[in-house]
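can u pls check wat happens w/ heme C
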Amino acid sequence: MTSESSPAARPRRLRRIAVRAALVASAVACLAALVIVSGLIPVPASSGHWAITSWFLHFTMERSVATHALGIVVPDLDQKRLVLIGAGHYEGGCRFCHGAPGTRMPRVPQASTPHAPALGAHLENYDDAELFYIVRHGIKFTGMPAWPAPTREDEVWAVVAFLRALPKLDGAAYRALVDGGGDLYSAAAPRVVQDKCARCHGAHGQGRGRGAFPRLGGQKLAYLRQAMQAYASGSRHSGIMEPIAASLGTEELQEVVSWYAAQAEPAEEAHARSAQSDVAARIPLCEACHAARDQSHDAFPHLAGQHPDYLAQQLTLLAEGKRGGGPYSELMETVVHWLSERERGALARHFGSATTPAVK
Ligand code: HEC
Ligand code: HEC
Ligand code: HEC
């Protein structure tokens, strides 16, 4: 028996192997550090990825999305209202990277690695929960951004509802969703209203699509200003309105809110709701703050004339602590906790008015 194979020699041999392995590992680490420090690794977007790298990264991304989307519960997405909201946002928030039906792919984003793909029939490879996960969280190292307002998963679902419709749209059908084919505009409106607001809210603030986009015309000036400031600062949460509000300069903001506040007041019909509402006992409470315009605080919104579906949605968001708002929003958050879901719906119908233009 040699000393090498004796039981006493075994720990020594193991130690030698461990030392060698450690030496090799540190040599590799030094080499890697040297390569990085030397600046030899190429990072230009202009050279793209090798086909194998592209495949590997995309496969890894798809597997990660599939696993993380497990357990996400999909709501009812078959609603025209959701498709309209999603389309409205896509035009301002996604198209500049992903392009849209009827137009060429935008050039600048095409020059990045990886670049945003045209979103078409291949979206079928993802189920609704996976698309939700991608739009809600974005994709690291690619430039695909996360949803800017994390509490507003309802808005992300609206985008998913639109992505489901997208592969079937031609240019004309896309435009009809995004701006109702054009009759939401008015030459009388200021330029900034035409360019940045009209396609969703209408040039006269008439709202659109069963409360998909709220009515603004005739709303109190102070409330409109405060709502825009709250979106711009992120204290009112919306991945759709926050970027739009943040993009306005001080003068533009003043111009748009003054314009909308001066538009026609909502129909009088909306004020005089029947007294048989099943939530009659709650109404005086609401009217303490939301009474006729001259009898309430400037920054408390006028509810009459707003679409009931929009009001109901806002009440749900307030109840779930997902809406945020201006400096007085805590008052409303306190009140909403006294209401059941059924009462929220009934009060939204009581105060609102369904006369906003139907879906176009
Ligand atoms: C700044 C550019 C940019 C913006 C804005 C952007 N994306 Fe992306 N998006 C990307 C890039 C880049 C990828 C590619 C990721 C990859 O190759 O793995 C991507 C990937 C995707 C994918 C997966 C596509 C596929 O084929 O695997 C979907 C779906 C998607 N984006 C939807 C959206 C939606 C919806 C919006 C708007 C809410 C949006 N993106 C906004 C850059 C963008
Ligand atoms: C892409 C469509 C879109 C565009 C463009 C858009 N909005 Fe909005 N706006 C929305 C949606 C959706 C909401 C509801 C957001 C929420 O849930 O908080 C909203 C809400 C609002 C509100 C809050 C209303 C209320 O009763 O509290 C104001 C004020 C507003 N928008 C003003 C504007 C102005 C001013 C512009 C132009 C500078 C504009 N919006 C452009 C979609 C849009
Ligand atoms: C103590 C005052 C107060 C009372 C009482 C009150 N509200 Fe409000 N409400 C507010 C304020 C302030 C806001 C604006 C929050 C913000 O966005 O800054 C608001 C906002 C709302 C909104 C969102 C409107 C929009 O355009 O987004 C709805 C809907 C609403 N209230 C319904 C009700 C109902 C229904 C009741 C009765 C149950 C009620 N409120 C009672 C103060 C009050």
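Residues 58, 61, 93-94, 97-98, 109, 114-117, 119, 122, 131, 134-135, 139, 142-145, 159, 163 surround heme C (ligand 1) (CB under 6 Å).
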